[in-house]
Task: structure prediction
Amino acid sequence: MHWQFATITTGDLAWARTRILEPLNTAIAQESTAHNATFVDLYPTAANHSVCDSDHWTDGILSSLVPLRFAFVHPNAKGRANTASLVEDAILG
Result:
């Protein structure tokens, strides 16, 4: 368990990834295709950049213990830069 996730365990995270995140991404990708829209898939590029990895692109529930700062599982600057790059590539080709 990583301190940024308080009482959420590694098993909880694996469950959320396979039962929520991956099916949600699939549904969004399918709807995008059905409506002739572009789906920018961030999932593959974020591998090995989870909150528990040394080069993390996402902050957990807490981004800092001292001072106490809540993040609510949100991309940090590196994660936002990755998203911006992929969206820019999708728009500009």
